[in-house]
Each structure stands twice: as C-alpha cells, then as structure tokens.
Amino acid sequence: IVKRWVKIPQISYASTAPELSDNNRYDFFSRVVPPDSYQAQAMVDIVKALGWNYVSTLASEGNYGESGVDAFIQISREAGLCIAQSMKIPREPKPGEFDKIIKRLMETPNARGVIIFAHEDDIKQVLEAATKANLTGHFKFVGSDSWGAKSSPILDQEEVAEGAVTILPKRASIDGFDQYFTTRSLENNRRNIWFAEFWEDDFRCKLTRPGIKIDPEKKKCTGEERISRDSHYEQEGKVQFVIDAVYAMAHALHNMHQDLCPGATGVCDKMDPVEGRLLLSYIRAVNFNGSAGTAVLFNENGDAPGRYDIFQYQMTNTTSPGYRVIGQWTNNLRLNVEEMQWTGGSRQIPDSVCSFPCRSGERKKMVKGVPCCWHCELCDGYQFQADEFNCEMCPFDMRPTLNRTACRPTPIIKLEWHSPWAMIPLFLAILGILATLSIIITFIRFNDTPIVRAAGRELSYVLLTGIFLIYLITFLMIAEPGTVVCAFRRLLLGLGMCITYSAMLTKTNRIYRIFEQGKKSVTPPKFISPTSQLMITFILISVQVVGVFIWFGVVPPHTIVDYEELRPPNPELARGILKCDMSDLSLICCLSYSIVLMVTCTVYAVKSRGVPETFNEAKPIGFTMYTTCIVWLAFVPIFFGTAQSTEKMFIQTTTLTVSMSLSASVSLGMLYIPKVYVIIFHPEQNVQKRKRSFKAVVQAATMSSRLSQKSINDKQNGETKIEPDRTQ
After folding, report:
1. H/E element, 122
2. 3-state secondary structure of 707
3. Which of 224, 393, 617, 636 counts the highest number of beta carbons within 10 A?
4. Region entry Disordered: which residue ranges (predicted)?
C-alpha cells in the first residue's frame, strides 16, 4: 500500500523550490510554474544588464528563500558577480532584527543592489527598517516572485520601494474567473468551508455563529456585502497556474483513457487502479495551450518552461504609481532599460559595484578572494599603465604621458644664448676680450718702448694669448654641442689657463732663480734669456696639448643626451640635456694640469715675496696668484655642491665660465692694466732707465738678504731688552 501511495504523480501550481527538479528524489513531481533556478538566472541577467557586479542577498529562513538565494549565488559566481552580504531573516525575528539587517547591509554601502527572496511580511519589514534608517533611495531591490507585482509588501513604503525590480512568472488575468468569483456569496458558496473565514477577512466584519458572542466593538457581517463592490479585489496571480495544473492532469488522464480504455465509458480495468508511473509518463507528454494562451508542457524533470515578466515599481512621471512591465525573460533577457525609472524619476542607472573603474594611468590591485573588488594605484614616477593590472617603467629616454597610458619622448634642452645663466658669463667674456685686444694692440703699437720691453714682450704676448683663450672658452661652453664644438672645448678648456700659468710660472721661476743665484755667486743662472723662457713655456704647454690629443684618440669627441641629470620625481619636469661627452671628473682632469701650474706659480710667488719692488713683476704676479687661488677655492664647493640640483648643468657651466673669466681678469688687471695706464696717460714715465747688470741684481739680492736678517736680529734683541723690564 505504501509503495503505491508514494508513486502518486503530483502537479503543483505554486512550488518553485529548485530542489524539486531533482528527478532522483522527486521523480513523480511536476509543476506548471518554472523553478527558482530559472528565476535566479533571470535575476542574474537583470543584475548584469544594469551593470552591477556587487550585490547583497536577503532570504527568508526556509526552503523557498534559502534555496532561491543559493541558486542565485551559484549562478552569479559563474557569471562573475560578487556577493557582498548574504543574510537570512529568521522565521520568528526578534525586535530590532530588521534594523540589524539594514545596519549590516550598510557595512558594504557600495552594494546598493539587494536580491531578496522573502515572504511578503518580511519584505514589508525590511522596507520599514530602511525607511527608519533614513536610507530611502539608497538600496535598489530586485525581488523574487513572492514580491512580484503585489501592493501589500510596499503598502505605506512606496518611497523606499521606488525603483524596485521584481519578477513574476508570466501570467494573464482570467476574465471568466473574475466574473465567477465576484458573484460568490455566503449563500451560493457553502461548499467551500474556508469561504466564511475569507468573507470576514475581506470585509473586516464578524459573522454570527450559534453559541458564540460577537465583540460589540467589531462590525457585524450582514451577508449582503459583495466582492469588488464593498472591498478591494485583485485577482490572485496564481489563478492561471491553478487552472493549467488542473487541465494538465485532465489532459493526461484523457490521453491515458483513450489509450487504455478505447471506446469505454468511465474507468476500465486497466485504469483501476491507475499505475502511477504510467500516469506520470502521460503527464510529462502533455502539450496544450493553457488559460493564458501559452503552451503548457513539462521537461524531463517535470519543470515548466521559464517565462517571466519583469516589473519595476515607479512613482514619478506616471499618471498612477504602480508596477510597470519593463521586460521579459524566456531563456534570455529582454529589458527595456530606457523605460526604467529610479528614485525621483532619474533615468540614470544607480551603481552597485565594489570598486569603480580605475582612471587612466591607474592599475588595479585586486582584493584577495573578491574578484569584483580592487584598489586603484597610480602608476607613479616614470611608470605608465601597461595593461589593466600592471605598470611598467618608460624607457630611459622617455617619460609617461599626462594620463600615463603611454610613453612620450623626453624633451631635449641645452644652454641657450638668451638664458640668464648665459648672459652674465657672455658679458664678462666680451668685456675681457675687448680689454685683452686693447692691451695687445697697445703693446704692439708701443712694442719698443721701455715698459713693454721690461714686461718681457715675448712672454707677455704668450700670456695675453692664454688670457684671450680663457675668455673665448665661454662662447664654446654656451654654444650648441656638436662634434667640432666638443673637440674645441676639450682643447681650449685647459689650454688657455695652461698658456697663462705656464708663462707666469716661467716668469716667477726666472725671478726666483736670479735672486737665489745672486745670493751665492755673481754668475747668472742658466735659461733666463727670452728664447729660453719661450722654450720652457712651450714645453710646459705641450704637456697639456699632448694629453688632450691622447684623449682625442682614446675617446673621440662626441655629443650625448643625458637623461639622468635632470630626472626629478615629477616626470613633467624631466629633460634630456644635450651635452658634450665630458663628465665632471674628465673636466677636472682637463683643468688639473693648469691647477698644478697655478699652485706651483703661487709657491714661487711666495718665495719671491722679498724681492724689491723695483725689480720686475714678482709682487704683481704674487698678488695675481693669491687672488686666483681664492677664486678657484670658491669655485670648487659651488661646482660640486650643485651636483644634485635640477639646474646642475646651467649652474656649473656658469660657475666654471665666470671663474675662468675672473681669473683671467685678475691676471689682466694686476699685470697689464697698470702698464697700459702708464703708456697711454703718463708717457713721460715710459722712458729708458739705467740698465741693471747682473752685478746690480746680486747687490740688491745681498742687501735684501741682509735687511731680512737684520730685521730678525732686531726683533730678537728687542725681546731680550724687554725681559729685564718684565722681571722688574
């Protein structure tokens, strides 16, 4: 008996639980409504069509709510959606339970979309809690068929429900049923034992029953009330499915009777009793047009096709607030997005995403375990956005574009003639060249005068040539770098100073040797003639020239673009600097020989400080060297102290050229300006004086030595005489 009982086929008009599709467990179950798995798929398609990828789910505790949400979560994962919160509403919620639910939903405020599989009363209380929390318009609900197009869940909560998208199996209103049901009364419908209870609830009154007293405060039913006239009437949405379920069973029995009992009236022996599995096969084979004009049929699991209407509750820009059909779902979604309205009548679809798209130049840093969530990180420094998830460094000669989506060439700069950094050195160099040329012309014109001859014409012209080259190097340092310019930079940078200080060193060395020799004997030292002096000078100069040409052979002069020197943290300020291939070290090496000559010359100037003023140029040369040393000592910290500056090239070029011009100007001013002044403005002093023999030089050296010794002795004697006074 039990075995026969459990094999009774069933046709449901309302059960939508997905697990009922399991043919192994519920093989005798069929239904004319689609399962919630179809509904869940339709809701996933709606979420995707709205551009959402981060939603929360809310389910009433129980088979309907939990299985519906489970189906949605499973399908959403396959579709790439993320679930922010998944909560259950208890069967018997405690006070404040719905407030806690809303509060927890707000823990992920970006998940504005809420998928809700819940009973009518739970839906209503969720909306009330959202209103209470002043979150009207924040959450956008996507409701299942339990919400559908019903007015009861949103009664008095229309504002917070505005924009809610709901789903309902496709249905039609059955006109014949309305005509039948609205004519039912207590007199003509006594066969329905629950009709009296419905009557009391619908008309909000109480029927009199024998032996039961009626509360005097409650309205008494008269029996004359009429459905739809005296109460609000709306056809139940499942009427169509009830009719289709009954007709499906009828069609199955009819077809079975025709096959098993052809021509017989009533049930024949083959159908008494009805074999359940055989009847099930006839049920699964039915295919007819139902009450709504759509086909009624079942698949192998006993499920009806998925056909849904998509509704949205709209209040604004409409004659009467209510649910409006905005689409359909039959295995695929057809949604009229342009007909949708949101809070306040807005046509803009609200966002429900975990993370908004990153801006140009930002990469996504994914949140572990949540594929819809990421942090946007700017590609900083010299990085550009290689793809959605990665930043890469631009090549060394490029910098990122403003939106950091690609790289662009770094601008190339050089020191311009009109730059403030160039104007001061150029001004000094032009003045120096004019002064040098004026002195050379003056010396040539008065070449045979005593002052010019006494100054040592040959070495003076060599020294003035060196000074001229020192001024000239300023123009080469500012000129646009090229192979020729770079070659002349290497050659002349140290050559001008080398010529100048070689000539000065030869002069000071000659004076020093003459007076030192004069202290010892009356025989003049060797190599003090003009020709010898020139030879010594050119030998000293040749060291510099040979060194430069060896440098040419090892590393031919060429230009480079230095992208590292001016590469600050902000790539917009990055520049490539066109320059000659001369590092700071090579530049110092180029000047090092001249510095050695300068220091040696200074040493001889110090040693010759005791020479009488009437003898040649020892003291002017000494003052020249002291001042030059001070200039170059100031140059070193400025030059190397700006190595990290963003304007390093400009500062160093200016510092170098100004220092060289100042050292040349010191030499010019100390050694030749006084002579030119006398030649031009006091020609009476430019006369031949008594020619000094080497013997006179020896006597002067001897007297100078004696005076120096006497000064030392007097100092010591003075100290001796003072001592007794101290003891007293």
Report:
1. helix 120-132
2. helix
3. 617
4. 703-728
Q: Nearest 5°: CA angle at 34, between 53 and 341? A: 45
Closest CA to 458 of 543, 528, 544, 518: 528
DSSP symbols for 573-601: G-EEEEEES--HHHHHHHHHHHHHHHHHH
500 Cβ contact partners less than 8 Å away, ≥ 6 residues apart: 463, 466, 467, 470, 664, 667
SS3 of residue 47 by DSSP: helix
What's the distance, Cα to Cα, between the start and end of the chain in Å? Answer: 150
Instruction: Tell me which residue of 169, 126, 192, 138 sits closest to 32, measured CA to CA.
Output: 169
Question: CB under 8 Å to 625, separation ≥6 — which residues?
Answer: 504, 598, 601, 602, 605
Provide φ and ψ at 239, rounded to 5°: -60, -45
| Whether the Cβ atoms of residue 124 and residue 153 lie closer than 8 Å to each other | yes
Q: Which amino acid is at 164?
A: A
Quote the Cα angle for 449-452-455, to 5°. 145
Find out whether 576 and 563 touch, Cβ atoms under 8 Å. Answer: yes
253 with 283: CB under 8 angstroms?
no
Crossing angle (nearest 10°) for helices 483-520 and 457-478? 150
What's the pLDDT at 101?
Answer: 95
Q: Which two tokens stand for residue 587?
A: 């530049």
Residues 663-682 as b/e (b if ≥16 CB within 10 A, e otherwise) read: bbbbbbebbbeebbeebeee
Residue 269 DSSP class: G
Q: What is the distance between the alpha carbons of residues 295 and 387, in angstroms, rounded to a whole number?
A: 50
* Residue-wise DSSP of 416-427: -TTSHHHHHHHH
Alpha helices by DSSP H, listed for 395-482, are: 420-445, 450-454, 457-478
- DSSP-based three-state secondary structure for 20: helix
CB atoms under 10 Å from CB of 436, counted, come to: 24
pLDDT along the chain (728 residues), means of 10: 63 89 91 90 94 94 90 92 94 92 94 94 94 93 92 90 92 86 90 90 84 72 88 85 94 93 86 89 94 89 92 83 92 91 90 91 89 91 92 93 92 88 92 93 89 81 91 91 90 87 83 69 68 88 90 88 86 89 79 85 74 59 75 72 68 85 86 87 75 48 50 47 36
The residue type of 670 is: M
Type of residue numbered 282: Y
CA–chain centroid gap for 657, Å, is: 42
pLDDT, position 129: 95
For the chain, how big is the Rg over CA atoms in Å?
A: 55
Sign for the CA dihedral angle at 185, 186, 188, 191 comes to positive
CA 607 remoteness from chain centre: 67
Residue 678 confidence (pLDDT): 87
Residue 70 contacts residue 50 (beta carbons within 8 Å): no
244's torsion region: left (phi>0), alpha (psi -120 to 50) or beta? alpha
Residue with tokens 């942090």: 375
Distances (CA, A) of 335 to 167, 309, 311, 326: 12, 10, 10, 6
Write the burial class of residue 102 (CB in 10 Å: 0-12 exposed, 13-18 middle, 19+ buried). Answer: buried
Q: Are 335 and 310 in contact (CB under 8 A)?
A: yes
Residue with tokens 């069609």: 251
Q: What is the DSSP string of 323-388?
A: EEEEEEESSSEEE-GGG---GGG--SPPP--SSPPPPTTEEEEEETTEEEEEEEEE--TTEEE-SS
